[in-house]
Amino acid sequence: MKDLVTVIAKRLVDHPDEVRVNRTEDERSITYELSVHPDDVGKVIGKQGRIAKALRTVVTSAAVKESKRVSVEIVS
What we know:
A probable RNA chaperone. Forms a complex with KhpB which binds to cellular RNA and controls its expression. Plays a role in peptidoglycan (PG) homeostasis and cell length regulation. By secondary structure, the protein is an alpha+beta fold.
């Protein structure tokens, strides 16, 4: 799952070498924290958050077999 978020994010940004994904897990959920170059934050979020919403939808769909809630957070 971490690789999925990384691949998608690297395709969206101008500085793919600065894409970082950290995984945080607790008993009920898994959170992927996506950090990118400050100039690329807008590209990952998109107009009115459409790209971020699509990224979250893809990750949620891919995580159906997980028994935990999966979310993606964009951090600067």
